[in-house]
Amino acid sequence: MKSIAISGSPRENVGKRDAKELRYQGLVPAVLYGGATQTHFAVSAADLRAVIYTPVVHFIDIEVAGKTTQAIIKDAQFHPLTEQLLHIDFLELDENKPVTIEIPVKLTGTSPGVKVGGKLVQKLRKLRVKALPKDHLDNIEVSIEELEVGKSVRVADVKVPNLTITNAQEDTIVSVTTSRALRQAEQEGKGK
């Protein structure tokens, strides 16, 4: 999985007033937890754009006060009106401890059901996956080569080595439904 490096500066004061001042300076208050201690720091909002506003999942190498730690984003809080990033939480990764991440689904191939006029409906764009950090992938490929009209691919149908998908097994990832044009063509065919 890809990794992005960002650097932050330690926060001396932790509180509402200090956080508001940081945001005014274009910084985002952040917390790194999951290790021996919690680290409170501030990071530039511009540095976080490549990590937050993307469907791709990244590991993040955070450098604070000369110490680099590999982490993932666990939570991000946004202002309800301006959508400004208010706070971000990072979870420190341990190479011997499994971590759950949402990984994007990538559809591969061409569906025969779509070729005859069916409609491709992707219900899940990400899957929750639990694995050791070294086993995580950039995306999970789901083949639609076998999808006829009325058929679907469920979570239970996807098998990836060294990963455990934690979504409900009966959840549909992608399906091919009968389109309005195909239904109309079938009705006209029956009417003759």
TrEMBL record:
The record's similarity note reads: Belongs to the bacterial ribosomal protein bL25 family. CTC subfamily.
Q: Which PANTHER family match?
A: RIBOSOMAL PROTEIN L25/GLN-TRNA SYNTHETASE, ANTI-CODON-BINDING DOMAIN-CONTAINING PROTEIN, RIBOSOMAL PROTEIN L25_GLN-TRNA SYNTHETASE, ANTI-CODON-BINDING DOMAIN-CONTAINING PROTEIN
Q: Where is the Large ribosomal subunit protein bL25 L25 domain?
A: 7-90
The source organism is Mucilaginibacter litoreus
Which key words are in the record? Answer: Ribonucleoprotein, Ribosomal protein, RNA-binding, rRNA-binding
Q: Please describe the quaternary structure of this protein.
A: Part of the 50S ribosomal subunit; part of the 5S rRNA/L5/L18/L25 subcomplex. Contacts the 5S rRNA. Binds to the 5S rRNA independently of L5 and L18.
List, for all copies, the residue spans of the domain called Large ribosomal subunit protein bL25 beta: 99-179
Q: What is this protein called?
A: Large ribosomal subunit protein bL25
Function per UniProt: This is one of the proteins that binds to the 5S RNA in the ribosome where it forms part of the central protuberance.
Name the domain of life.
Answer: Bacteria
Question: Which chain regions cross the lipid bilayer?
Answer: none
Report whether Nucleus shows up as a keyword of the record.
no
Q: Which GO terms describe its cellular component?
A: ribosome
Q: Could you tell me which Pfam families the record lists for this protein?
A: Ribosomal_L25p (PF01386), Ribosomal_TL5_C (PF14693)
